[in-house]
Amino acid sequence: MHNTDDTAPTHYDAILLAGFGGPEGQDDVIPFLRNVTRGRGIPEERLEEVATHYRHFGGVSPINDHNRQLKAALEAELKRRGIDLPVLWGNRNWAPYLSEAIEEAERRGFRSLIAIATSAYSSYSSCRQYREDLWGALDSSGTHGTITIDKVRQFFDHPGFVTPFIDGVDEAIAACEVDFGAAGLADEVEVLFATHSIPTADAERSGPRDLDFGHGGAYAAQHNAVAEVVMLAVEQRRAERANAEPLAPVPWQLVYQSRSGAPSTPWLEPDINDAIAELPAAGRRRVIVVPLGFVSDHMEVMWDLDNEARETAEQSGLSMIRVATPGTNRDYVSGLVDLVLERRDGVPVAERPAMTTLGPWPDVCRPACCENARLGFKPALAGIAP
Ligand SMILES: CC1=C(CCC(=O)O)c2cc3nc(cc4[nH]c(cc5[nH]c(cc1n2)c(C)c5CCC(=O)O)c(CCC(=O)O)c4C)C(CCC(=O)O)=C3C
Ligand SMILES: [Fe+2]
User: Fold this and answer.
1) Where in the cell is the protein located (predicted)?
2) What is the pTM of this model?
């Protein structure tokens, strides 16, 4: 829609998988949380509370293993397609850090990298912060001027990311058809698409500054657009199974989770637990929770959905199905490789796949894209300077 990028073919020496990072033992938990929240104004009580989530699992987040598995899956897919591109991996908040991956690139003589951030949407936390930390990794490894890093576009509406959610929701709905009947299900079941809450001030600044995306900015608009596409595809499959029997659509809404920050700072709402608690009054007996904002079943999914949201559902007398994240799903992995190839080969924007009218998102972020409302701009890669 607003991609003005130069689509010239570009040579890359390697792929850089840029992850969030997570602790891998009890001693890592507090230093990891300090890394994540440095300068962010997160209250101490919130940190202690979140530490207990990690402690409950031995101080280990599964997220680093997810990225090890994703790296291996990317390598296998590249090999299968005969593409000779090594994959490096580094994290924003825990070892192996991005700077270590850059140092490895330097040692191995790689000069031109294409980054994949494990985050699909636009906002400070889900896009710009990765770009800033990539810039910072070039700084701390002294490789500005030696190594260049491009980054694949935000892929919220790429079929590789969306298809696993369509398949997952479809499977959940098919299970509900067995329990509630093909038509009755629309009264008894509701789909909640869950994503990470962010401060509303950051949400309003998400995406290019010169475009107005309404309440919640590009961040909420992208999630709503993807949820709509998922439900459209799912309704079509329902209709095919129903053999022309007319069906009311299954109700759905976008909800938010994992709010932190000071209580006085507004964050995107409704919270998933509040939304679940309202469902019985609307006659619902089951909730399908779709972690649309996440690429793997990491701590925010394991704790905030599988633990907290499930408990809220039980207390509300609802059964709950939680749909899987893309993880190392075949379509997702092959979609990520496609995103690299569209840059390497300079695929024209008009030929790039995008399942919503918001995309294909630009390769290079617009000036003043995804500003942090409190901290303003730090230098960042893969964008036009504000
Ligand atoms: C949009 C978004 C994503 C999705 C995009 C993406 O995937 O990148 C995401 C992912 C994740 N968030 C994660 C963990 C944490 N996020 C925190 C804090 C925050 N997240 C925020 C936003 C997001 N976060 C924000 C606005 C804050 C407030 C502080 C700040 O302004 O930066 C805190 C501090 C404690 C707390 O306040 O909860 C923790 C521990 C993990 C790792 C899980 C694991 O270990 O398995 C992952 C994948
Ligand atoms: Fe987070």
Assistant:
1) Cytoplasm
2) 0.97
